[in-house]
Design brief:
Elements lengths: L22 E5 L11 E6 L3 E3 L2 H4 L1 E3 L7 E5 L2 E5 L9 E7 L2 E3 L9 E6 L7 E9 L10 E5 L6 H4 L4 E4 L5 E7 L4 E7 L15 E3 L4 E2 L1 E12 L5 E13 L3 E5 L9 E5 L5 E6 L8 E4 L9 E5 L5 E6 L2 H4 L3 E11 L5 E11 L32 E4 L3 E2 L5 E5 L3 E4 L4 E7 L2 E5 L5 E4 L6 E5 L7 E6 L4 E3 L8 E7 L6 E8 L5 E6 L5 E6 L4 E7 L2 E9 L21 E3 L4 E3 L3 E8 L25 H7 L35
Parallel strand pairs: 10-19, 28-37, 38-45
Antiparallel strand pairs: 1-2, 2-6, 3-8, 4-7, 5-6, 7-9, 10-13, 11-12, 11-14, 14-15, 14-16, 17-18, 20-21, 21-24, 22-25, 23-24, 25-26, 27-29, 29-34, 30-36, 31-32, 31-35, 33-34, 35-37, 38-41, 39-40, 39-42, 42-43, 42-44
Length: 646
């Protein structure tokens, strides 16, 4: 009995390690001066790894040649490949790249500084970097400072001091000089030259300059003898660095290189071309291996001229398996300028393979054969109307081929009154092509809630470009009742010019846009559900969001989020006040639709709901000017609480 009491098992291994590595010593020591050795060694209290050193480790001044960064046991060894500059402060910002070997606990905000001269520059500037269009915090984007205040410095010179935005978009540019004004920029540096010289790179800029300064402060550290009795209060001195609330809004100028992205011939009678960017002009095409007049095709295009379809009219032409054409279009050349380009294209049609497993029909006896009846071929038409139709939506009529002619008198709309179908005159409703979708017509009418309607389309109502006409069709449908919808009205304060409000779904995608009129935005006939809202200042009054332009010193249009979810129920009218300046800009986007949420920042549903309350926010974030996060440089981090943008 005594022997059987013991059970063999593996040792538990103790509690999980949740402590990050701790700095022990380094060569050179933090804040050392007159250093000329390009080899740096940092030791920690446990075996460590360096996570993504080429992305996370930022050395300032920026290094043109990549330094060698290696983890060896408890040490990190760095060997700089560039020559050291005289009388210059160097900063190695590791962000969260230093992790322990077992649990990958990161040492956040660790940095090491030294100087090649007799003094060390010790000031710093901090802030937050957000995506201008959706207010998402941007991770891993370069943020740099220039003491050269000329506008051309950003496009011609590498950044003087450089940092990187962390997982929440916060950045700190360390070791700045005293009494020197700096301009701050952000750059998604695709070619790693630390300057904005590629039009496709994401950037952020401010026209103002900043002078860094420090203020001495104290915080109290209390030691308790038990849970109620205070034993000792220790006051610790530290420096708080300013400014610490710089707001950078990153954007892309959308200056993409123009080229032909794709070409295809999926069907015999259509040639499809897709270009990378829009353009005002259309390409010109010339046949090479076939003869045709100038009207041998019908062009179908979108509003931006970057998606083009050429429908071939003549069957003698489209029955040729391989068509060769010459196309002249605008393309970006090696100097990043748009110039005419002559292209020779081969468009081959490959018929789909027949199913070999399909059984062949046995020929009938001669006595059983009857004259073959050739079925009538109609132009394909799709009537998009549901049995329960939305009260605010038109009927969509889609055709498979371009339309040659349409007979409006062949369309009939009826409304059921009691038991009778009453014809609605064509002067009451409209039938017009859809401006955003090709080969689509919209039949619009002011539908009565709970009304019953019928649409009839006669045969030969529409004739396509090949002379085929549509078949007769009809459809009965009923309009939804008002009790199935919600209405929402925003009373908006804080804007003076034109603005657009976008109602968003749970994936942050716009559902419907409405302009702000007389200080309000009204949404009607909404399906019940959870929505979010975004507003952008329509500076040029063109009804769409526009990005910025550095050469023109044009910032992207300002964006604001309503800071909480909107729960709309059936047969509800919701009125909501919205002051776009009430909540700090970095706290406006609800966590539920925020994509950049690091694991340690994710909260449970209850906490998210509390954080989404626009009237329950604190000072802007969890950091304020509370000291913490200091590295080997000896400077305390002071992550900012950002003021409302005005």
């Amino acid at each position: 009995m005594l022997f059987s009491c013991a059970n063999m098992s593996r040792p538990s291994g103790g509690p999980k390690d949740e402590t990050p590595p701790r700095y022990i010593k380094s060569r050179p020591m933090p804040n050392s001066c007159n250093i000329n050795d390009k080899r740096i060694e940092i030791e920690f209290d446990e075996i460590i790894q360096v996570d993504k050193p080429s992305e996370k480790v930022i050395i300032s001044p920026p290094q043109i040649n990549m330094p060698k960064i290696q983890a060896q046991g408890k040490k990190v060894r760095i060997e700089l490949q560039d020559s050291l500059l005289p009388n210059t402060t160097y900063t190695m910002d590791f962000s969260d790249a230093i992790v322990d070997n077992n649990e990958k606990n990161p040492l956040k905000g660790f940095s090491l500084s030294f100087s090649t001269g007799p003094s060390l520059d010790s000031l710093q500037i901090s802030g937050i970097l957000l995506n201008a269009e959706n207010l998402e915090p941007i991770t891993g984007m370069l943020v740099g400072a220039y003491s050269n205040l000329d506008d051309t410095a950003f496009t011609t010179l590498p950044m003087e001091r450089v940092s990187s935005s962390d997982a929440l978009g916060h950045f700190t540019i360390r070791n700045l000089k005293a009494n020197i004004p700096y301009r701050i920029f952000a750059l998604k540096d695709g070619n790693r030259n630390y300057r904005f010289d590629a039009p496709t790179e994401d950037i952020a800029f401010l026209d103002t300059s900043f002078v860094s300064y420090a203020e001495p402060k104290q915080y109290a550290d209390t030691i308790y003898t038990d849970s109620l009795t205070v034993d000792t209060i220790i006051y610790i001195d530290y420096n708080s660095f300013y400014p610490n609330d710089i707001l950078l809004m990153a954007f892309n100028e959308q200056k993409k290189n123009r080229y032909m992205e794709d070409k295809s011939r999926v069907s015999r009678n259509k040639l499809d071309f897709i270009f990378s960017t829009p353009h005002d002009s259309l390409p010109s095409i010339t046949p090479l291996n076939f003869e045709a007049d100038s009207n041998w095709y019908v062009l179908e295009k979108n509003l931006t001229n970057d998606t083009l379809s050429y429908w071939i009219k003549d069957s003698l032409v489209f029955n040729i398996d391989t068509l060769k054409i010459a196309m002249q279009y605008y393309r970006t050349d090696t100097l990043n300028n748009l110039s005419l380009y002559d292209d020779t294209l081969t468009m081959t049609y490959r018929a789909p393979k027949e199913n070999k497993n399909k059984k062949k029909k046995q020929p009938k006896a001669e006595s059983d054969t009857l004259p073959e009846v050739i079925p009538t071929v109609f132009a394909k038409m799709e009537l998009n109307v549901s049995n329960s139709h939305d009260v605010n939506k038109p009927i969509s009529i889609q055709f498979d081929t371009p339309i040659d002619s349409i007979n409006h008198s062949a369309f009939h709309l009826y409304e059921k009154q009691d038991t009778l179908w009453i014809n609605i005159p064509d002067t009451i409703y409209t039938l017009a092509p859809d401006s955003t979708r090709s080969r689509t017509y919209l039949l619009s009418h002011k539908w009565k809630p709970e009304g019953e309607y019928k649409i009839e389309i006669d045969s030969v109502a529409v004739t396509d470009m090949y002379g085929l006409h549509t078949d007769k069709t009809d459809k009965n449908f009923k309009i939804k009742s008002l009790q199935e919808y919600s209405n929402l009205y925003f009373a908006i304060t804080g804007i003076s010019g034109s603005a657009i409000v976008q109602l968003l779904d749970g994936s942050d995608k716009p559902v419907v846009n409405v302009p702000v009129v007389d200080g309000g935005a009204e949404f009607t006939y909404l399906k019940p559900g959870t929505y979010y809202a975004r507003l952008f200042i329509d500076s040029n009054n063109n009804g769409k969001y526009d990005t910025g332009n550095y050469a023109l010193k044009l910032q992207p249009e300002e964006v604001y989020y309503y800071p909480q979810a909107l729960e709309l129920r059936a047969y509800w009218n919701m009125e909501q006040d919205w002051n776009i300046y009430h909540t700090a800009i970095d706290m406006q986007k609800p966590n539920a639709i925020k994509k950049n949420k690091p694991k340690e920042e994710k909260k449970d549903k209850k906490e998210e709901e509390e954080n989404d309350d626009p009237y329950g926010y604190g000072s802007g974030n969890a950091y304020g000017n509370t000291p913490g996060g200091y590295g080997a440089s000896g400077g305390y981090g002071s992550n900012p609480s950002f003021p409302t943008r005005r």
